[in-house]
Design goal:
The complex is a heterodimer of chains A (about 140) and B (about 130). With about 140 residues, chain A is of the alpha/beta class. Chain A contains five helices and five strands. A five-stranded parallel β-sheet of chain A has the order 4-3-2-1-5, with helices on both faces. The chains are: A alpha/beta (about 140), B alpha/beta (about 130). Chains A and B meet through α1 and α3 of A and α1 and α2 of B.
Chain lengths: ~140, ~130
Amino acid sequence: MSKKTLTFALMDPPFENERTTTALRIIEAACRKGHNVNVFAYEGAVFMPFAHQKQHANSVKGTDLESENHPLTRIWIAELQQLAVAHGGRLDWVNCGLCVDERGANDAITGIRRGSPKDLVQFLEGSDNSLVIATR
Amino acid sequence: MAKKILNIVSQGFRAIYEEQDDTILWLVHAMKNAGSDVSILLQGSAVTYIDTAQECPKLTLGTWKQSNPPNIIHDMEAMIAKGISFYYVEDDALARGVPAERIVKGIKAIKTTEIPGLFHKFDLIHQW
């Protein structure tokens, strides 16, 4: 199978609905097959790679920090960055800069770029296909 | 006396893999622990929470492996054991094919036409 370049436009913030997990699972499958993956994170999705996300215990369930092992999207995205490289591809993640400024979401994990709709256009022009997973 | 609060959950599976539980069930559980008189009505797609055959496998992304996946049935049973009343809309469960023999114990069925009557038993109705 030939290497493809795929662009995903994501819009949902983390920890709100199942679309975030679904999107990252699709991206994982693409990375695992060695495809080049572009992500344009728009609106609340810019919080997905936010560097200050922290795990917490869960007093309602009685779990401590370790046993709760709470998922963090910044960790998932870092995993996907490494997975892409390990399979001969790349994950290029661009956060919409205005969306970042509105939310104070400036501190993203390493490898996340700040960009604009122009980056989305460049992604789309250079992609074999694209998928929008928008807020509903 | 605490106000009686009915919390309606109409959409299931919102971020349960990220949060490792349903966020509204968790919140209502925490409110109960804080002394609130809370109940839950499951309707729409959320009625599938009552199916004991459901299972959330551990998620893997890259090398990250989930060790504590969501277990909605366990959470509901714990909440029922603490005295939180659970209701589900029977019509919605029938429409989605939830088998009667697989419904979690201790949850009460109501028909759509009975919802207004249920509302009259509560001081506050919260549609989440």
